[in-house]
TrEMBL record:
It comes from Desulfurella multipotens. FMN binds at residues 11-13, 65, 133, 163, 194-196. Belongs to the dus family. This is tRNA-dihydrouridine synthase. It comes from the Bacteria.
Amino acid sequence: MNFSSNYFLAPMASYTDKPFRKIAKDYGAGLTVSELISINSIYYNNPKAFALAKRNYNEIPFAIQLFGYDIDLFIKAALKIESMCDIIDINAGCPVPKVLKAKAGAYLLKEKKHLISIVESLKKYIKKPVSVKVRMGFDNDNINTIDFYKDLENAGCDMVTIHARLRNGFYNSSVDYEHIALVCSRLKIPVVANGGIDSYEKLKEVKKITNCKYFMIGQAALKKPYIFEDLLNKKDSSRNIEYIKNLMLNHFTLMIEEYGENAHKLFRKFAHRYLSGYKNAKLINFCINNSKNSQEILNIINSIK
């Protein structure tokens, strides 16, 4: 596996769609990953699932992340979308109750042997690399061991990304970088550090602790997708409101191209992130939330000073 940089965009449901991934890639993300996609929806040819799997011309490499439980469906789904990506990624970290109820996402950390079997089975049938994204454990009674990671490696896993929080830690609890460091020191396959990296200064800290080569950025990229540029330039930067305004216009234009008139509803959540911390953000967000069409959004963005 070859990456254009060592800084990857994390898959995030409802956020890392095709337009946003293009922006992240333009800023230097070395790997982009689809939103999580159900193996059932792929198997039953759900058009929405295949839309989520579409890549931009500049997304090289590109991973499609699958979630589910049934091994046979995992194989069939992977075979259907293998030609659409460079890497098949298994979601074993999503903490959302709806996903857990389907025995998918972080639930697989409660049935580690089953997860190992999924990896082994995929490696038998598909030619593309298989990666796994995990949390460091399901709960305090189910923390991943080195033997588990070794089993993943021996099963044929080509890369493992570790979000070093427990399932019930969601996205705001402390991150155990020492857990990643131990795994990184014991595995031969690439280990990607994930969780809490929101600046170049933070990256230096995480790199020093973990000794990892690769890093995945999630929540911070939603507010400042240019974080990838900062990491590559090895310095943190601040962007003025004019820059953010142009970024918003670029992003929204991409969304209009992808979603048509529905774009104005889908863009709202991104606008809130971009404007966080800026004066008049509350008023601007109120106007965006109450917009009736795409032209109104464009007018609002253009009025930002």
